[in-house]
Amino acid sequence: MGETDSEPAWRQHLYLQTRLKEKNGRIRLLTIQPRKYTASRPEAPPNTIHCFLRLAELKEHPQFTVVSHRWQATDAADETKSLFVNGAPVPASTGLFEVLHHLQRESDPVVVWIDALCINHADENEREKSVQVAQLAQIYATAEKTLIWLGATADRSDEAMKVLRRLAEEQLTLSAYVANWTPQLGHQLAQKILPSRFLGASPAASPGNKEPLELQKELDSLRAPLKALMERDYWTDLWSLVELCLSHKGLIVCGSHGLPLDHFYSAARALDHIINHLTYSKWLASATSPTTPSAQKSTALSVDEVSNLSQSPALRILGRREDHRRDADSWLKSPDNPLFALLSRFYAVPAETQLPLRVGDARDRVYALACLATDIAELGIAVDYGKDVNQVYAETSAAFLQRHPRVLQLARGTLTAGDGLTSWAIDWENVRVPPSYLGASSPERPFNACGPADIRYYRADTGASSSQVSLKAAVVDSVQEVGTAYAPGDDEAEQQQQQQRAYLSEIRQFWEDSTASISSPYFAEQAAVALAKIPVGDIEGGAASNAFARASSATVEGYKRTAEALFPAETARDDEPAAHQEGDKEEEGQEPKPKPAPPAPDAPYLAAMARMAGRRPFRSQNGYVGLGPADLAVADVVGIPYGSPVPFAFRPVAVAEKEGEGEKTGEGEGEGEGALYRLVGEVYVFGIMDGEFMKVHRQETVLRVI
């Protein structure tokens, strides 16, 4: 068969004979022939690796090792390496050849599943890749073990792996396995290994025990190699996390050294504990001991030294694996891992808590975590690399929307969605997390705007179109006036106060305009509470970084103190009668009281305001006042989808009129059954967040959102 431009001859030779087009439990397995086999074939160049690729059925439980390693389809082939598969020469990158060379044995063949060779990545529309990724969890579950390849020896990695092995062996004598690791066990291990002078137990280490001192010197010299090992490229890839979570039994290999996966993690945690002791002791020695400059240099920490491994990519990703497997294995917890919860846990979180994992293909943000999810079949989501990323996001979001309206809280909205993108879909690369979002798995729902029209009445229909969703909702009002988006920023204190004054002043003005009308939904007596709650979206910060509660009397008091500090002139006018009384007393000969120091804004209240960064105050036609997204505009419609704890803003964009076989679309306000809307985003409206509007006005409307 001749070679074509689209598919090299070796691909045709390997993959056309063993096609994989359906998700039926069929895979390819690679048999790495032993070195003796190569030696028996004198026609092959020296150091050639011979392999055999064959089909296998997972249901027959074949014996094989799955290889987890990082590679790119664009990796350049190393012409100095000789690899033959099924008798045909196959180009191999340096990294791929290193993995196969490590796996090759002298006398026995080794059977592996390695995606670089067992999947045809040049298949049309990546159909074969779609099939194999869809059954990746089954592949890892069937494998005897996973070999995790970190790469070849470099940066003194052999020495670093030896230290980890020794720490793992020490822990085995203490029964400090990863499953029951505690700081107390870490301290016990440190006491056993480190000299006592580094633990404060006694002034000096026992002169007869040189081993701890030798380990201490060894660790000091290996800080940089350990840091390099924990920051290898393998630890920074999304697929690495998924494959580690799928691995029930793993062996981490770097160069010629290997360590069981759980032992590696346990040893790394112990190493972090010990290095913290050493770092503290060096800092203490340099800070408290009057020494010569040369001695100070020996005890001072270098900027290149690692002082805390717990934040290294390796420990962070292995920590996530431990969390995942502990939840899945515990009989106390449900093994259920819904895809929406997994995606939210990784992407709908503050940037500082996200794992900085590399994603080569944006579609893998969904498809990779889908390998860990337990509800893919129920959702009707199929892995299909023939679709572009916007199709993947839209179809996944549509599946989620049919279950719960909270998906709308994370949708891209009009701020980032172009004309060709669905506004109600979630862009998992740039998730818009509103201040009130608590997470997919949180049982708490502080707001209940839907009132009696709860989740039992929720309906979202995508129909035949993947670009449109129909929501059953109650329309509250349309926006009549919008303010300036709040941007606290990192400016100087005076500039920040100017922004705070402008933000609070706009909200107060909207409130006064609303209550001045006889048709206002509010009473003037509500001003003290409303003016305190609206600027913070009725949210009061909790102890955890992502926790919050509804605003309380503390919020009202915090607003009062903040208003007094930001608007001193108004406070002074309010205090004029009291000042006159004080003046009268002074005339009677009494000593004047010293003037109090100018008040400072309430810090917790300012922190709650900061959570509203990017939110824009607004007033509706009927007088409702609240906060919306930064791109909220006049004429946007505020509605409450049935079952939703919060309201949303929708933008009328077009009226579709069917004329014969054609369809005419024009810009204008959406009215009637043909109206189309784009989702703007979540809004907060004072006075309707506990279902007040739905208890009185419950007229059903179907919003067609694109």
Notes on the structure:
This protein has 4 domains: 9-143, no CATH class; 157-230 and 261-315, no CATH class; 339-483 and 627-705, no CATH class; 493-573 and 601-613, no CATH class. The protein is built from 26 helices and 21 strands. Strands 10, 11, 14, 15, 16, 17, 18, 19, 20 and 21 form a 10-stranded antiparallel β-sheet that branches. The chain has a 9-stranded mixed β-sheet with strand order 5-4-2-1-6-3-7-8-9, sandwiched between helices. Residues 1-6, 195-209, 295-300 and 655-670 have low confidence and may be disordered.
Distance between the termini: 49 Å
Largest sheet: 10 strands, antiparallel
Count of spatially separate domains = 4
Put simply, the count of helices is 26
What is the percent of helical residues?
A: 25-40%
What oligomeric arrangement do these chains adopt?
single chain
Tell me the overall shape: globular
What is the strand tally? 21
Overall pLDDT score: 83
Low-confidence stretches: 1-6, 195-209, 295-300, 655-670
Q: What structural class do you assign from the helix and strand content?
A: alpha+beta
Strand proportion:
15-25%
CA-atom Rg in angstroms: 32 Å
